[in-house]
Amino acid sequence: MSDGDGEGWPGAPTGERWAWLQAGDGGPELVRLDPMDVSLSYDAASRRVTRHADGRSEVVGDDVFAALGEELAAGRPEDRWYGYLGYAARPDLPARPDGRLPDAVWMRPSHLRRQPAPAPAPGEISAPEHAATPDWYAVAFSEVQEQLHAGNSYEVNLTYRAAVRSGRDPLDAFLRLSALNPAPYAAYVHHDVPGARAFVASSSPERYARVEAAGGVRTLEAKPIKGTTPRGATAEADAAASELLATDPRFRSENLMIVDLLRHDLSQVCEVGTVEVPTLMAVESYASVHQLVSTVRGALRDDVGTVAALRALFPAGSMTGAPKLRTMQIIEDVEETPRGVYAGALGWIGADGRADLGVVIRSLMTAGDGEYLLGTGGGITVQSQADDEYAESRWKAERLLRALRD
User: Fold this and answer.
1) A Pfam family in this protein (predicted)?
2) In a domain, 3, yes or no
3) Which of 6, 94, 128, 308 has a CA positioned 20 to 30 A from the CA of residue 239?
4) What whole-number distance in Å separates Cα of residue 198 and Cα of residue 103?
5) H or E segment at 140?
6) Is 206 a catalytic residue?
7) Confidence band for 5, pLDDT divided at 50, 70 and 90
8) 38 DSSP β-pair partners
9) Distance, CA of 206 to chain centre
10) Is 78 a catalytic residue?
11) 3-state percent helix, strand, coil for the chain, nearest multiple of 5
């Protein structure tokens, strides 16, 4: 495992724990931890939160949200923690532990500097060749449809995990991915600690949650994405793809169901009457896809801390479906592999009450053993077709795979 020098990135930090985030409030943030600095890791299988500092590790609790909140409360007002919450980070919800990487990692650095990371030229990306829908996906899709028609869920985000071996350094994979798939929530986490190794390269377009404070009011905002089409090869085809996304009833119904779920989630922690949807189903365009994005926002209650607010929304409704609890139970039954870091949230949380995190999609994860994990999938409704949904999952994953190829 590289110590993080990063080919072609002069000045990248050395050492075992560091992070690079695009979603900083003053530009990209590059942070590194000294040996005395603190990090937390969480193993959902054993329900253990471990605190790492000064070369020592000790178990400090069984709930990573609670442990992180305690660290924030005990720290300095200027402290900021960087890291991720994997899909199984909430012990009160049905989700299989990862088993490969920690189900959460958070780091408190003592050094901060802003520095954009250069990236290799991406080259051209072609759409993946057509492939028949495999039997295992068809079976899972059919089981989801049974649940939908029975009225147990209105929408299920059906995903799967793939494993790819590559000799590429994780930082280099992140730089390549950032070039191939530029996105506002690009982030890299490097936690090279024995027993809790995690290297996460993410280029996510989706905001999980942002907490801001102004004029004595703390605002909680989420921007769920539901509805995706690939970019067209020509200007005319691209415009047609965008128009299809904006007007197709299937995409619009998917998005509206998740907006309703997010309105419910925010209402649990926001002042009555403050939850609003300032933007409903806007088309946002990225290097490889058009996406249908809504904004849900509310004013946090005074008695709700930032970590508690993030917990109330977790995991992102766009990555579960609606209703959340029953749909997560369906996901647990039909998906063959754990989601791990994928479908969680990655970003930063400040002791001053602010926070900014993206949803972990378009991401590569590795424990440093040469095997990379990636998740892909999409929302399924009664109108969905198995072949179309499987094809969508493949082109969503194509740029991730390209980042690992020579």
Assistant:
1) Chorismate_bind
2) no
3) 128
4) 9
5) helix 135-149
6) yes
7) very low
8) 108
9) 8
10) no
11) 25, 35, 40
pLDDT tens-place string over residues 207-249:
999 999 988 899 999 999 998 888 888 999 999 999 999 999 9
Question: Is residue 102 a part of any domain in this protein?
Answer: yes
In CATH, what number is assigned to the domain containing residue 330?
A: 3.60.120.10
Helices (H), 321-385: 324-334
Rounded to a whole number, what is the distance in angstroms from the first to the last CA of the chain?
Answer: 18
Within 13 Å, how many C-alpha atoms sit on residue 230's CB side? 18
Total-model pTM: 0.92
Question: Judging by beta carbons within 10 Å of its beta carbon (0-12, 13-18, 19+), is residue 327 exposed, middle or buried?
Answer: buried
Torsion angle of alpha carbons 151, 222, 361, 119, nearest 10°?
160
Residue 191's nearest CA partner among 83, 98, 99 is: 83
Cβ–Cβ < 8 Å for 220, 276: no
Say if residue 56 is exposed, middle or buried (CB neighbours under 10 Å; 0-12, 13-18, 19+): exposed
Q: Which amino acid is at 86?
A: G
Question: What tens digit of pLDDT does each residue of 340-394 get?
Answer: 999 999 999 999 999 999 999 999 999 999 999 999 999 999 999 999 999 999 9
Sign of CA dihedral 311, 317, 322, 326: negative
CB of 158 within 8 A of CB of 140?
A: yes
The one catalytic residue among 226, 389, 392, 398: 226
211 CA to centre of own chain: 17
Phi/psi at 271 (nearest 5 deg)? Answer: -60, 140
- Whole-number Å distance between alpha carbons of 380 and 250: 10
H or E element at residue 290: strand 289-299
Which pair of structure tokens corresponds to residue 216? 């004595």
Domain range for 273 is 17-120+133-404
Domain count of the chain?
1
Q: What is the DSSP string of 217-232?
A: EEEEEEE-EEEEEEPP
How long, in residues, is the chain?
406
Catalytic-labelled residue, pool 206, 254, 392, 398 = 206
Cα 337 to Cα 395: distance, rounded to the nearest angstrom: 20
Give pLDDT tens digits for 37-78.
999 999 999 999 999 999 999 999 999 999 999 999 999 999
pLDDT tens digits, 185-208: 999 999 999 999 999 999 999 999
Give exposure, 142-173, as e/b (b: 16+ Cβ within 10 Å).
ebbbebbeeeebbbbbbbbbeebebebbbbbb
* 400 inside domain: yes
For the chain, give the mean pLDDT: 91
362, 353 Cβ separation under 8 angstroms: no
